[in-house]
Amino acid sequence: MLLTDLMQETYFALMANKARSGLTILGIVIGIGSVIAMVSIGQGTAGSITSSIESLGSNLLMVMPGFQRGVGQQVSTGRGNAQTLTLEDAKAIKGLLKVVDVAPQNFNQAQITAKGTNTNTQINGVTESYATVRSVQVLNGTFITALHNSSKAKVAVLGPTTAEDLFGEGVDPVGQTIRIKGLDFKVIGVTVKKGGSGMSNADDAVYVPLSTAQQYIAGNTRVSTISIQGESQEALEQLEADVTALLMTRHKITDEEKIDFMIMNQADIAASASSIAGTLTILLASIAGISLLVGGIGIMNMMLTTVTERTKEIGLRKAIGAKKKDISVQFLSEAVALTFVGGIAGVALGWLASLAVAKFGGIATTVSIPAVLTAFGVSAAIGIIFGYYPARRAAKLNPIDALRYE
Amino acid sequence: MPADSIFSAAVSGVVKNMIECKNIVKTYQTGLISASVLKGVSFTVENGEFVAIMGPSGSGKSTLMHIVGLLDIPTSGEYRLDQKDVSKLNDDELADIRKNKIGFVFQSFNLLKRTTVLRNVMLPLVYAGIRSGEREMIAMKSLEHAGLDKQYYNYFANQLSGGQIQRVAIARALVNNPSLILADEPTGNLDTKTGEVVLNTFQKLNENQNRTIILITHEREVAEYAGRIITIRDGLIVEDSQNNKRRSGFYK
Fold first, then answer.
1. With an 8 Å Cβ cutoff, is B198 touching chain A?
2. Phi and psi, residue B184, nearest 5°
């Protein structure tokens, strides 16, 4: 049997039962489509988590205060509450090998007012290096400079969300004045929108000089976080050990159990976040995979019905010279044709669905070519697997029994 | 004539036998009950003979035709087709022989219903691997031969009358140029006049093209169109005689 004949036969056979073929294909379309849509949602989510972690800065280590424990005491005040990090620590860290820059900062939550509006947000006391280490860019005006810090200047750089909250959309706040804890701060810049959400929203923040924040807002010399930018991703592990050793020496701690700070490696955070996202993707894909399996069973069901219905035809074909292979290939190609058409339509549907989710659902989606190819391969495989049994059953029919079948 | 002497004649090459059946037995096993349909049938058919196998229903004539047509294999016995032992071939080998040597006309026609006349006739050529252009030409010629008007070639099989369907079935049986044509009650579903046309067609195929034809029927009138009549009853041949007064016209 020639290939063109096979395709013709398949076409005529499937067109003879349009509704049944269509519904069977629909099962595959939904299966493939949901696999692609679900995987794209999973991968899109993974991508947005990763990029929001990367937006913190590149090759980043963050040192934070750990537990505050008195000598011989076991009562912990909770992580981050120790006031053990100082500006001197930051300066010492900067002297280590493979450190590009160090950005000490403190956080304060406070009410901010400006000409009849107000908001409550995080006020970050920072130095000039914060901009490079944490990759903050200024859209209008300038960032905090070294001079601002040494002179304890009352200047502020606003995140775009905060700027909008205080001054309204599209208004340039540079040169305006805001009030924090009763003191006037001059706005000298607005940062570029970074995206992200939740606790660490870089867009909803105010940056002031660290020295100013320590003296006028926090009222202490505490440093909440020291961000360290390493030379490379690979250097971070060694750097983490070096920083630990340095701070232990500086804080006069010999027992590792009693370390009063903690170090977070950006790579570790990214890895754990992406493993969560990976699990999410697998979960979604396996739910969708079940519908693909159901679609495959639909194909098998239809093919078994077809074989039964066309028993007489199979007998005739065998009588006029069709071999087992001719018969099995014919039925197999019908099954594969169903999944092939279903696969193409399913890819299109899945793609559209993921675009729709991105547009209307606000969830980032990424349709990856490997996922599309895999889904397509799976659908072809389903055609072969679920078509094989009916096809073999057809091929094995005895011509006489088949011809006599009513 | 004892079967042995028939065989020795064939081996000596005096006549070229197309079919040599020796002691064919067919037993169907259904659960614990086994039924012998053929109980040792021996006969030979020479090249170019027109033979009618006649018998009442249940006599085993259809089973015999299926075995002769290689649609079924005997439980025991020897069957040589063109001097080749075919009683122990596998499915695919049998399919190959059916494809090249045998044309079937079934009682129930067995056309593919929602398929055009032309495609129905071309089907054996599809399995023979003949290219589509050539295929159409051969099929048209075969249909012309079988006497179907050109206007029906693109009709679906289920749009035709009984006589037309039978012509299509004959055209399909002839399309692969078989040396052996097997017809199972080809007039069973036809009126007298159409049946006669069909039988005349077989006669012409036999006389003009020297094709071997085996016709299965339960009617003596139909059998009398053939040159030789084998009567079968209860799985055994009871009579095998030449028919010197071949019918060609109306049967009564």
1. no
2. -100, 110
Domain ranges of chain B: 48-72+98-242
Q: What's the predicted TM-score (pTM) here?
A: 0.69
Using a 10 angstrom Cβ sphere, with 0-12 exposed, 13-18 middle and 19 or more buried, the burial of residue A142 is: middle
A interface test, pick of B63, B109, B110 with most A CB neighbours within 10 Å? B110
Minimal C-alpha gap between B96 and chain A (Å): 6
Interface of A with B in 301-320 (CB under 8 A): 312-313, 315-320
How far apart (Å, rounded) are the C-alpha atoms in residues B139 and B121? 6
Q: Is residue A40 within 8 Å of A367, Cβ to Cβ?
A: yes
Q: Give the count of beta carbons closer than 10 Å to the beta carbon of residue B48.
A: 16
Using a CB–CB cutoff of 8 Å, tell me whether B135 touches chain A: no
Q: What is the pLDDT of residue B44?
A: 92
What ipTM, to 2 d.p.? Answer: 0.84
Report how far residue A321's alpha carbon sits from residue B138's, in angstroms, rounded to the nearest whole number. Answer: 17
Burial of A123 (0-12, 13-18, 19+ CB in 10 A): buried
- Residue pair A397/A403 in contact (Cβ under 8 Å)? The answer is no
The DSSP line for B27-39 is EEEETTEEEEEEE
Instruction: Flag if B95 and A321 touch (Cβ within 8 Å).
Output: yes
Residue A273 to residues A41, A283, A354, Cα–Cα distance (Å): 15, 15, 22
CATH class for the region spanning B48-72+98-242: alpha beta
Q: Spell out the alpha helix ranges (H) of A82-137.
A: 87-94, 130-133
Across the interface, whether the CB atoms of A320 and B72 are under 8 A apart is answered no
Across the interface, whether the CB atoms of A322 and B95 are under 8 A apart is answered yes
The bridge status of strand A117-126 relative to strand B212-217 is unpaired
How far apart CA A128 and CA A96 sit, in angstroms, is 19
pLDDT tens digits for range B112-130: 888 889 999 999 998 888 8
pLDDT for residue A116: 86
Parallel, antiparallel, or unpaired for β B180-184 and A205-209? unpaired
Residue A263 backbone phi and psi in degrees, to 5: -120, 130
User: In the predicted model, what is the mean pLDDT of chain B?
Assistant: 85
Q: Which residues of chain B have pLDDT under 50?
A: 1-14, 250-252
Spell out the residues 6+ positions from residue B22 whose beta carbon is closer than 8 angstroms to its own: B3, B7, B42, B77, B78, B79, B80
The answer to whether B178 faces chain A, any CB pair under 8 Å, is: no
Rounded to an integer, what distance in angstroms lies between the CA atom of residue A333 and that of residue A11? Answer: 10
